[in-house]
Give the backbone structure.
Amino acid sequence: MKRLIPIIISMTLISSCYSVTKITYPKTAKGNVVDTYFGVQVKEPYRWLENDTSAATSAWVKAQNQVTGDYLSKIPFRNDLKKRLTALINYPKYSSPFKKNGRYYFYKNNGLQNQSVLYRQTTLTSEPEVLLDPNTLSVDGTVALSHIAFSNNGKYLGYSIARSGSDWNEIFVMNLETRQLLTDHIKWSKSSGISWQGNGFYYSAYDAPEAGKEYSNKNEYEKVYYHTVGELQSQDKLIYEDKQHALRECYASVTDDEKFLFISIAETTTGNGLLIKDLTKPDDNFQVLAPGFENDYSVIDHVNGKLYMLTNWKAPKQRLMQVDPANLAHDNWKEIIPETDNVLERANIIGGKILAEYMKDATNHAYGFDLTGKKLYEVNLPTLGSLSGFSGDKDDNEAFYVFTSYTFPPTIYRFDVAKNVSEVFRKSDVSFNPNEYISEQVFFSSKDGTKVPMSITYKKGMKRNGRNPLILYGYGGFNISMNPTFSVTRIPFLENGGIYAVANIRGGGEYGEAWHLAGTKMHKQNVFDDFITGAEYLIAKGYTSSKKLAIDGGSNGGLLIGACMTQRPDLYAVALPEVGVLDMLRYHLFTIGWSWTSDYGNSGESKEMFEYLKEYSPLHNIKAGTKYPATLIMTADHDDRVVPAHSFKFAATLQVANDGTNPTLIRIESKAGHGAGKPIGKVIEAQTDMWSFVMYNLGMKPTF
């Protein structure tokens, strides 16, 4: 392909009375690239935008951000909204405490700190001291903590950081007594844990990527290493690799007693295999604990000589099994907690009990069992909502958990495992009155008759007159459930009469693996049908109308929004595809995209799969002359999970095809990634821009 000089920068034209009269977009040059799939030619005029480090792409990004910035700056209430969001976010935020080696640890953000700080204390009432402050690791707050792990001997803290939102991690080691950073420094780890054993730890890493392609090239041949404290990364011992399968991920974990090492191996996001090694016998080889890749297997812990494992093997809604390390065959596994009508999401062994968390109709319930699987009690939760997960040690009766819902700010509870007693440990000091709002759950019938739950949150006194601004959120993929969560950034929308709705569509994990699979591969259209039907339900029931309806989703949810706005552009007033997977023919060629094929399939595997993907791929279903909703595409330059090329190509295509009456903008954030670890300052800026765009294009006149 010829080198392109593609950018002609044009200015947005805005009238002085704050009303947008016309937007002139940067002109994006078209190349002549054509791909052929099973004899079908597909034009790729904006392939050059996949080169995220080229001067041409950088100029295009600058020009697009100029247009978007000009548009957003003329929204009359934008500055007041930013002040309101800043005030709302400015309150102390705490994580649930957790105990390691006789000390308590927790994260705290004073209010507007870019990153939360890790503290420790001897008792729950003693004065906390700062253990690690990631805000000191960068001037602009773009270095975030990714993982932490304490050595079992109490000497060390292993922690990993991510820079500018990238999934690439660097691992460091701190002396816990002196709080001094040691010389250890490990690079090119990605989403790896740190699992201690003896005077070192296991971790996963890739070979160093090609210079200049760190954030876009396909990641291949992940390996597991053992690092001894004080040594160089080049001296680390290779523990596991698979030279025959480039596109497999491997992850190491060790039981708390350091007796067993596990390697989890996955080809996609669904299903894994497990290898086991007895660390008390150094000369032993790995054995197969669970074959891949049809089911999911996760070891909870090693207790009294037995392994406890959560799995969906012959149980789509999951069950807890007990495995004798001396008799690994599946036929010898013992069922401890059987599958029920509700999804068993998590299980922890704390205080000699099994604390099991279930999901029923997208809300959490929790129960205590003894180690034989006998149910002892149900944990009394405040209302319908979400449980973050219990933290605690298997020999300690004390546990903590966080509970929240759409109208219930996150609250930390201290839990007595033996007595089944919860007490409030710390409330959120957020400026929000739950008594002024209602959150209800409804069920609607999708296109094929499937019942789908949806949560709807609004201010009391709302009238179903079809004139309410409403934003509908969805995800629908990778067995991920959309449980009720609280967010202060929604408050300005809600307090100005907005309605916030979340559809628990297929593809997620709300009803187990069958619900997930019903929204994958050749069934992916079910996901879009569920969401579209949910939007139609909200209109039919008078909550809103097409002129007052916005839709939002990120990552796989960005794909959802892209597909729904191209399939039914008439149904919505505003669309927000955030960090979306928008090119379904090439997604698997970038970074870790190949691991998503269990949900999507890929365009090269068969003609049938190619045709199915092309039929809904948002990029390939934009039609010239169509009136699309007001669209704000959101992405970031360091997103190496869903590379920004998806959003770049989608924006360029949409700007040319749109009939011109609604804005088609792209917001490209610098020194940011897929979302994890984003500094508070950048969160406020992004949320200000997003909600300003939504409210302005829904015709709202908010007051703050």
Remarks:
- Residues 1-18 have pLDDT under 50 and may be disordered.
- The domain at 52-86+432-697 is CATH 3.40.50.1820 (Rossmann fold).
- Residues 380 and 422 are 8 Å apart (CA to CA).
